[in-house]
Amino acid sequence: MIQSDKGADPPDKKDMKLSTATNPQNGLSQILRLVLQELSLFYSRDVNGVCLLYDLLHSPWLQALLKIYDCLQEFKEKKLVPATPHAQTLSYEVVELLRETPTSPEIQELRQMLQAPHFKALLNAHDTIAQKDFEPLLPPLPDNIPESEEAMRIVCLVKNQQPLGATIKRHEITGDILVARVIHGGLAERSGLLYAGDKLVEVNGVSVEGLDPEQVIHILAMSRGTIMFKVVPVSDPPVNSQKMVYVRAMTEYWPQEDPDIPCMDAGLPFQKGDILQIVDQNDALWWQARKISDPATCAGLVPSNHLLKRKQREFWWSQPYQPHTCLKSTLYKEEFVGYGQKFFIAGFRRSMRLCRRKSHLSPLHASVCCTGSCYSAVGAPYEEVVRYQRRPSDKYRLIVLMGPSGVGVNELRRQLIEFNPSHFQSAVPHTTRTKKSYEMNGREYHYVSKETFESLIYSHRMLEYGEYKGHLYGTSVDAVQTVLDERKICVMDLEPQDIQVVRTHELKPYVIFIKPSNMRCMKQSRKNAKIITDYFVDMKFKDEDLQEMENLAQRMETQFGQFFDHVIVNDSLHDACAQLLSAIQKAQEEPQWVPATWISSDTES
Ligand SMILES: Nc1ncnc2c1ncn2[C@@H]1O[C@H](COP(=O)(O)OP(=O)(O)OP(=O)(O)O)[C@@H](O)[C@H]1O
Predict the structure, then answer these.
(1) What pLDDT score was predicted for residue 535?
(2) For residue 196, what is the domain's CATH number?
(3) How far is the CA of 529 from the centre of ligand 1 (A)?
(4) So what's the pLDDT on residue 377?
(5) Residues 462, 556: one domain?
(6) Distance in Å, CA 423 to ligand 1 centroid
(7) What pLDDT is recorded for position 533?
(8) C or N terminus of the chain, fewer CB within 10 Å?
């Protein structure tokens, strides 16, 4: 039995009314109204997805659409007829009458308007429609057509700047030239007259019998204006009934470098992190997709998940063996940043940051999880994604900052927390080292035994950890959850190798990559910046430090760019902070693409 929770605000009854039409055949509006009423009962009970569905059905654009639908239904019923079937003659008569009227500027203007070509064309169109005179007159079919004659279709397409949007192939046995695929959004598909499997008989009056596909393409390339195809239609035109799927490309693809692609010109190149709309998966090997950043263009061919995985594997095995290389850092910073300030910020200590950088070298780490570089060798080439909009009642998404050492990740994180400590916070890390006299358990660190720390690792409760001077340091899921449970935004910095561990539906991380600007700008902006390394105190950035930072940033982008939701170039600190604030606000308040598994896990829980 469905009950309403009295504690919550019931949705406004007035707004629920979707349509005012009284037409008894108006079933769609009626059904939607009932669905809304039903949903309003669940609304206050926080049932997963109901609020989203309710808001969708309640949205002004859907209601407006329904109103339009209702109006159209009403007009359909009325069977409107034109006031006059011959508006053109009426117009001639008016012009004649005006001739006999004394001339004035207004009469002159009216006469000109009635005789203007566009007005005449409009009246002509009106008369054609009024007389329902749009069916072309076809000659009668000859009586003596043999039974075995194949039905032909004549297709005329007007060539413009766009490609025709179809590929052809030769049938291996019969040698016929067939339409291999029709590309979504292309001229051929929009005409609705050509289908994959249609047999080409003639192009512009030239028979294609015995020709190679290349020769047919040459004829097409030479044609100007209208192209006429004579085809034998495929008996069963393929129907694309698959649902639209969106994926994030986890690898890059360049059709020009792929000798296997059936038609290089029809290929769609993409880069890591691009969001693709998969519009056709009928072929097991070659899908059709378009980039959501470029929705107006027609689709292109991309390798299917299965094929791309195979290609990745073949590429991986063809590479010479390389021992595991890590993104290493040489720039180290001071011991303690948060101490002595108005409020305390945890997680900025040098020990913590150094162990982070060394974490992927630890044998313990290697035995528990797979690093990012392993991931790129065997991981899925596409990740299914959906649009996710955080609801105000949801916890905040975890904000992850990453970047090469010295780029300013910690400076930005610190400034953010200082800007609004009641809104932004770091997680308190764990350590196995002993507490110092001025420290407090749960403020600088959670001080735990080695056994406790290791059990957290083995139970996958550590998001990142490492060893420094014989002690373990790390950040736990629970420490992050504590911040999120307080309805604050948790901001953490992470090495890219650890990114897979935080990508869970629980934390829904939003990853921001902090990137150095070019060397010339960096030399200027870091003129007075001081770094403290393991060996020197207050050392200025040297050119080689900046160069290494740039190289490291490039490697990080190449290897992990698919995981970055946003990139900020840290040139002016002030601008970078402003960009960071705005990016975080968008991450929390605007729809974003997230892995589909994060959302399905939500529904299951
Ligand atoms: N945009 C900037 N302009 C000038 N100085 C900057 C800028 N960003 C950061 N700095 C300075 O550069 C130095 C290094 O920054 P920070 O400590 O934040 O680096 P990091 O990315 O956290 O690397 P690490 O963890 O190795 O210290 C600091 O002195 C910081 O104040």
Answers:
(1) 55
(2) 2.30.42.10
(3) 7
(4) 45
(5) yes
(6) 23
(7) 60
(8) N
Instruction: Give the per-residue pLDDT at 11.
Output: 38
What ipTM did this prediction achieve?
A: 0.98
Of 231, 241, 150, the closest CA to residue 194 belongs to: 231
What is the structure's pLDDT at 15? 28
- Ligand 1 centroid vs 273 CA: distance in angstroms? 27
Q: Say if 140 falls within a structural domain.
A: no
Q: Which amino acid is at 149?
A: E
Give the separation between CA 368 and CA 385, rounded to whole angstroms.
27
- CATH code of the domain covering residue 262: 2.30.30.40
Kindly give the parts of the chain with pLDDT less than 70. 1-29, 43-48, 79-80, 133-139, 141-142, 145-150, 240-242, 318-347, 349-378, 532-538, 601-605
Range of the domain at 177: 153-232
What's the 578 CA to ligand 1 centre distance in angstroms?
A: 16
**So what's the pLDDT on residue 123?**
84
Contact present, 28 and 18 (Cβ < 8 Å): no
How is 67-104 classified by DSSP, letter by letter?
HHHHHHHHHHHHT---S-S-HHHHHHHHHHHHHHSPP-
Query: Which residue's CA is the nearest one to ligand 1's atom 22?
Result: 410
Do residues 175 and 125 share a domain? Answer: no
Per-residue tokens: 497: 């190798």
Residue nearest (by alpha carbon) to ligand 1 atom 10: 408
Name residues contacting ligand 1 (CB within 6 A): 329, 331, 333, 353, 403, 405-411, 525-526, 529-531, 570, 573, 576
Here the tokens at position 354 are 């150094």
Q: What is the pTM of this model?
A: 0.69
Nearest to 32 by CA among 73, 74, 70: 70
- Cα of 556 vs centre of ligand 1, distance in Å, is 18
